Amino acid sequence: MSGMRGLVFSIALTHIRARMRQTLVGVMGVAIGVGFSVMMAALMEGSQNDFVAQLVDSLPHISVTDEQREPPRQPADIVYDAAEIHGLTTRVLRPGIKNPFAIMAALEGWLPGTLAPSVQWKAVIRFAGRDTAASVTGIDPRREMNVSKLPTQIRSGSLDNLFKASNAIILGDGLAKKIGARVGNSIVVTAGSGNTISATVVALSHSGVSQVDDTQSYVLIKTGQILAGQTGLVNELRVKVRDVMQAREVARRIEAETGYKSVSWQEAHEDLLSAFQVRNIIMYTVVSAILMVASFGTYNIISTITHEKTRDIAIMKSLGFASRVIRQIFVVESMMIGVLGLLLGWVLGVCMTWGMGFIEIKSPFMDSTHLPVLYAPAHYVIAGLVALSASVIAGYFPARKAASLQPVEIIRGAS
Amino acid sequence: MTGPLIEARGVTRILDGEVPTTLIAGVDMSVAPGEFLAITGPSGSGKSSLLYLLGLLDVPTSGEVIIAGHATSALDEDARARLRLETLGFVFQFHFLLPEFSALENVMLPMRALGRWPAERMQERAHEILASLGLAGHTHKRPDQMSGGQRQRVAIARALANDPLVVLADEPTGNLDTASTAQVIGILRDMIAGEAGKAVVVVTHDLGLAAQADRRINIIDGRVAVPDPSPVSDVTR
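Predict the joint structure of the above. Result:
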């Protein structure tokens, strides 16, 4: 059967070599389709990964807070089938995580990562007559480097400066800009609890995510507790896991063990991640459409060849070539165009992706300076498979028509 | 093979259409081993249609064509193609060579499709056949680089490639000059003379060619004309 395959291949090769210009047009059609598909996928997934990476890096992978998913059941509810409770007032003080250091010790026994305690509070920051709302996070600088990239994100100073002044504060650079504060300035921080302190700006931080840089500030954990008016308060454990994709499972286990609400970065940005899924579906639909359009070119070429080769098909069939062999000849021609286009398309894709990586952008949300691109083998394999399948389908229909041709009709007409 | 190489029993071919056209009506005939048979008749009489039916290029509306003892009416298209490849060789009025292939490649085409011999043997055999037809120096020429007579000889070489039992030729000299015609007839005759058990069926309106046949069947309006104008009895070489 290998002899027959060789025959099919040599006839197919002869056909497409005899129509170099048409073949080249078909090959270019597939190549452009594959090239643009690869480039689009590289851009879409590159920007998505870049965004997720910055998002993940700028926030804890898991945040364990002193909240619970369901409000605790009241004792009266537990004892009686029906109970109505009147006159309760909500506590002003935040409960905080009970025995935070015991919990941390227990978690550190199995956690595939590191964790650090913190105090989270909302506050109004005032400087030079300007007020702005901000998040104040009380941190332990020695542990902080284990759970976030904050130490590497400090500009104009260092994280250790928090120890160098009483009530020292690090402001996000966007936040500092909003109120016009600079390192060395003294600002007023009023917490939601009503406590007010005067703090000295000792450094600025820059995560690259505007949403964070415009609202975030850091103080020592003790300062945070003073602002909250609760000594010893820890209302958040921030966790960094070694494999960011494991965060959801780890968060689930922490919540099961501690009873405290434990939110992974995936859960916190569920809407964003599902938006990415929608975006990916759109992207692959567009990519498939591009390749389908390219396959119309192949269809045209194979149709033209089968039309031009009607007499040759008739003569091959009259010699005794089976319909299956005739079909194979034209499908192989189509595949040859597909494979050549695919190889050229891959090269084109790499070049265009590389070129795109040089384009400078200014994003309102991120501070990327160039279009982020991703070189993923999967993009090339998917584009290749779709292009090849489209080529085979594009070749199959004219090939089937050619194979169904009755030789006697052609021979009678030509004689 | 002692029985007929090809046998037609009550073969009828009617073309479908608003007005059905009868091309061949109830033809009974046979081709014996060693026979050079000419099918003659006026233009449009159905002689080519009969050849196509005998050569399994067309399927009878009714009746049966038997090739080397194999009834063919129940065979599907691919099985008919296989039988054609193994037992029959065709020569048409037009050479019908594949234009992008050389003479050698054209001759090797049916051999490669059949796959009976290894590649070296196929090439050797193609060279031998072409040389025997006086085309030794033209093996690598494409059809457009050869004369009409040379092309037709290449077409005959291709018909002989798989060592067929019967060569079916449809006006093989129709486009040739006198010298080439004589050459082609000589080649076809030699084929029968060279090997026992082979036959040649030629459709022609050339009375000169028909006169050289062992037997002649005259077709008029799709039927075998009676009486046979030049019956040759018991052709059993």
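Chain B touches chain A at residues 48-49, 52, 55, 57-58, 77-78, 81-86, 88, 90, 92-94, 96, 98-101, 109-110, 112-115, 119, 158, 170-171 (CB under 8 Å).
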